[in-house]
Amino acid sequence: QGEPLTGKLTPPPGAVVEQVLMEADEQKLLMASDGGYGFICTFADLVSRNRAGKALLTLPENARVMTPMAVHHEDDMLLAITQAGRMLMFPVGELPQMSKGKGNKIISIPAADAAAGNDKLAWLLILPPGSAVTLYVGKRKLVLRSEELQKFRADRGRRGTLLPRGLQRIDKVELDAPARAVSEDGEA
Question: What is the value of pTM for the model shown?
Fold first, then answer.
């Protein structure tokens, strides 16, 4: 409605608003940092009773908050791609549900590379079953169908598989997810 956030909140000096979102209280959200850590919380965990707000996500040094994403199904896959071109896929249900903290490692990024700013988590996507992903690098593109994505599947917290040479500095990622069948209770 055009009202400034500072009318309701008093952020500490130097603080900036990175994301604004609205969901139902029980909606699960994936909270992550580009340092490669994350966890699942509910929207109610984000709500603060104080004007000064509350600390929810603890960031590693030089890390930034990534856009929170709604988690609708535990069987969806989480696809993480680093700036250096490594890709890892695992079930989103492997991340813990927490109300605050740093979270667990999504993808391993060497501490020296992260601190120097050479590598970070660049893309994070939630993939429903049967999804395809298109990676764009300059004028080139690589389409990875559901079966081709399986070679990037590994345990949470691993280093990830290196993308093919020449397709590692990704400019854009498109997700082609099939529509989910809707059950009688309205859940997708």
Answer: 0.88
